[in-house]
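Loading example: each entry is read as two labelled lines plus one structure line.
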Amino acid sequence: MAEVRLDCYGEACPIPLLKAEKKMKELKTGDVLIVETDHSCAIKNVPEWARKKGYLVDIEETGEGTWDIRIEKTA
Amino acid sequence: MSSLATAPATKKEARPRRSQLPYAMLAILAVVVVGVLLAQISPQLSTMWIFGLAFGFVLQRSRFCFTASLRDPVLTGSTSLTKAVIIAFAVASVGFAAIQYNAFLAGAKTIPGHISPAGWHTAIGATLFGIGMVIAGGCASGTLMRMGEGFVMQWIAIIGFIIGSLWGIHDYGWWKATFMDKSPTVFLPQVLGWPLAFFGQLALLGALYLLAEWYGQRSKI
């Protein structure tokens, strides 16, 4: 049940998504990847990708224009 | 979603946020004042002002993105935005067909809208723009919208945008002589007749939509 934080502050799309994809491959089932981003496109395309893969997704706005996207690797 | 809820909360402390409502009220007031002032010069300017703001608002809230619509199928296999852009084209086709057909019936000498020659200049321009927009993180509307959002990258991108446009205008004569004057201008209703052009275009867009749907389902990488 490891929690891994991925810092994507300052990165423009599609970098947060590409980084998340790569990082997700390293995680085991049950791990949670937290993508920290301040890019508003990412809160649309990262959850879309994650849900398509069947992962559980939760988005939290941690500040004005910054978000934590929590993705749980279910399989 | 249950495991996310019961997972140990290692979230950052959410900073107390100042209400943005006063700024919103000021902004709305400024929009109305500018709109009224513009209407004194010409009611069309006022309409364009409101339309531009509304367009930007919808663009931002929906995260609609022309750049992503063409980049994502290649980069991530996602076609959701591609399908959205196809729908936008279909809606625009209907609207423009109405305007143009109306003008045609009224016996206008020129059909409203940009009907220009298509040739090598189109292909070269499209390639350059496609490469540029993916690197810059936005096309024309996306760049303006992100400037408003506060992304400094787009404030820099707009400089390139302006330089590129000015350079293009500077060399316009060369492009016209070398490519545009030698390229055909095709107005589909003129070539195929109004019904075939209109329904044919919608059918083609429908086929592209289905292709995008199939492709998006297929690439479950």
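The interface with chain A takes residues 1, 3-4, 7-8, 10-12, 14-15, 17, 60, 63, 65, 68, 71-72, 75-76, 78, 80, 137, 149-151, 153, 220 of chain B (CB under 8 Å).
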